[in-house]
Amino acid sequence: MPEITINEKGAILINKSLSIDGHSNGSLRTVTHIHSDHIRDLSKSLTQCKGIAATPLTLDWLAELGYSLNRGNCLRLNYGSKFMVGGLEVTLEKAHHIPGSSQVVVIDGDGLKVVYTGDFKKPGKETPIIDSDILIIDAVYGNPSYVREFDDHIESILADITKQLLSKGPVVIQGYHGKLQEVMHILRTDGVSAPYLLTPKTYRLTKIAERYGLSVDNYVPLNSEEGKEVMRSNWFLILDHVNSAHNHTLKDLKASKILLSGWEFKKPYRYLGNRRWLVAFSDHADFRGLINYIIDSNPKTVIVNSVRSSYADVFASEVRKITKKECVVMP
Known about the structure:
This protein folds into two domains: 4-145 and 285-330, Ribonuclease Z/Hydroxyacylglutathione hydrolase-like (Metallo-beta-lactamase, Chain A); 151-279, Rossmann fold (3-Layer(aba) Sandwich), CATH 3.40.50.10890. 27% of the residues lie in helices and 25% in strands. It has nine helices and 20 strands. A seven-stranded mixed sheet has the order 7-8-9-10-11-19-20, covered by helices on one side. Strands 14-13-15-12-16-18-17 form a seven-stranded mixed sheet, sandwiched between helices. It has a six-stranded mixed sheet with strand order 1-2-3-4-5-6.
């Protein structure tokens, strides 16, 4: 039985040799994706860990976000690729969350399989459900009331709203890195052909994602000469990080605004006033999706990572009641 601990920052440590989405001195650190709660203390890990393992897209995005990655210290792993550390066989598998996201599969010397899901959505459809002996899960939506009945249709709903607003003028879409790139692809797939104007960091991250197969096309930097030409057409979409320093420069732009949020459960969208809309577009499985993953993974034990879970104790109680599985909360 491997020794599994989770520290107060959410780092998962297995046999003191592998750390996942958190720092532990002397371990090899695996990063499932670039969101801030999964890359805490990464700068420390780059100097104090044996190495950093992640998908090539995740590593390239981390470099773009300013992390000084030493290529000799990084394991660039495609899905299905394996490496060994401390007697553990480690594999990254796909997670449908943002581009480059992964699940982590660990097999010890006795053949016992530990799976950490990382962040995911659409289990069994876009995110493979992996059989496990021990399943570690972040219950972001751990409350049983956190269910979105419209989840299967939200992509087409977002596209329809975007098309309607574009018929009246420019549209600004605000969200987080990774989610923005996913939305660009979704809108193109659904027939939205208006040019994308991207702020510098969003542009560079999108260029990297395209190298790994994300289909976006027809996008230019917001402040480029080509971008200024597009703005004169009055038919375009601007996509930017929700906390971007560029937001103040866009506030006087006469445009409709869409805020992408994962914390709306009652309605797929709602009007906020002043040409602003909130769309319930999440990159996380809701409560029902979390439970379905657990049922189909069929572990003997479930570990809920309380640092990245809401209502962790409530969720663990529901898991025990619904699945009859042993379920513990860490830390």
